[in-house]
Amino acid sequence: MDHSTRRRRLTPPLLLALLLIGSLISVGAGLSSLAIWTDTDTSTGSFTAGTVDLAVSPATVLTVTGLAPGQSGSAALTVTNSGTLAVRYAMTSASTNADAKNLRDQLALTVSTGACPGTTALFGPAAIAGAAFGDPTQGSHTGDRTLAAAAAETLCFAWSLPGSTGDSFQGSATTTTFTFAAEQTVANP
Q1: Cα Rg for the chain, rounded, in angstroms?
Q2: pLDDT of 28 strictly over 90
Q3: Are 125 and 39 in contact (CB under 8 A)?
Q4: Is residue 128 predicted with pLDDT exceeding 60?
Q5: How far apart are CA 160 and CA 116, in angstroms?
Q6: Looking at the predicted structure, is the pLDDT value of residue 56 above 60?
Q7: Domain map (residue ranges) of the chain
Q8: Of 6, 36, 117, 186, which is least packed with CB atoms within 10 Å of its CB?
Q9: Whole-angstrom Cα distance, residue 105 to residue 126?
Q10: Range with the lowest mean pLDDT among 7-11, 91-95, 146-150?
């Protein structure tokens, strides 16, 4: 065997050993150079849900006894948004007719904004049996009222019993429940 053949057989293992030693040296040097300064910080998120809280005062806006044809009167009702979100609200009503005399269809009602006598009519004058404004279904509707958070508005409820009311209404009675339904205006087109 000649000298050049021998060298070829020894070269690949020697070359592999040298590459391995070189790699280990560079990894060691790289590990010692990875010392870096670091820092961390945090940030938090806080969420609180808003509230929808509509209140009316007084709880009984009208109590009238001893009605006679041609009588009229009024009372103020305050609607307050006690919640933290702006709201829109509507009013509906339901009237009894337990004695079948239909006083609910004879009594006229007007609901207006502002202190009595009111400024802008929201309902009426029309029979108390159908008293309503706005629409209590979700979304913005014609006639809905809006109130900012912690705001209030006064409504005037003015009633009258027409002078033409006949004898058949003597001793009749009706009770009307006014229901105020509110919903948020934010994210609620």
Answers
A1: 41
A2: no
A3: no
A4: yes
A5: 14
A6: yes
A7: 1-34, 54-184
A8: 36
A9: 9
A10: 7-11
**SS3 letters across 87-140:** EEEEEEEEECCCCCCCHHHHCEEEEEECCCCCCCEEEEEEEHHHCCECCCCCCC
pLDDT value at 8 more than 60: no
User: Which tokens is 138 given?
Assistant: 């979700």
- Rounded to whole angstroms, how far apart are CA atoms 57 and 113? 15
Give the tokens for residue 39.
């820092």
Residue 42: count of CB within 10 angstroms of its CB: 4
Whether 1 shows a pLDDT value over 60: the answer reads no
pLDDT tens figures, 105-115: 999 999 999 99
Pick the closest to residue 161 from 124, 128, 115, 133 (CA basis): 128
Give this prediction's pTM.
0.77
What SS3 state is found at 181? strand
Q: Which residues are 108's β-sheet partners?
A: 127, 160
Q: Which fold has domain 54-184?
A: Jelly Rolls (2.60.120)
